[in-house]
Amino acid sequence: MQKSAELVFPPHQYLYQITINPTESKLCQVVVLHQAALADIRNTPFRKSIEAEKVIANEMQSLGFLHSVTNRKYEGLFKKGLNFEVDFYHPELQIGVEVEKGEINNIWKNICKFGESPVIRHGVLLVPVIRQGQQTSSEFYNNAIKRLCNIERMFSLIDSLLIIGY
Q: Exposed site from 36, 60, 65, 87, fewest CB < 10 Å?
């Protein structure tokens, strides 16, 4: 019997794909491993995405990802003079990962960073399944997919864009 897509954790899907991201299943395993801590961060207003990054940092580094990467840490990640940073970057597999807590505008910036880097082939967005505000909550993962699913031309500078909910 096949599981419903809503029962699969973490929810994940490609918004754009020429080739598969070679770490897709391992990234999902990292999210599952830290599901409780990530849910606590996600569900508490005023917490920051850096907290979620710190929770997964050790496992990401064991997979070969560098944390908080700029041109100083990995030369050529962005054009000279750009002070961009990606949350995690895998130099050999050319994967950039951005962890968000719930600001949709940051997702747009992240997509621009993926496209701006000459060495990022696969972009990954880790986003909360639900965004919990002080008095409201929203289905952030589903809303992000709805906003991004019809702009494939924006993704054409990379080989894949994977979104994973936490």
A: 36
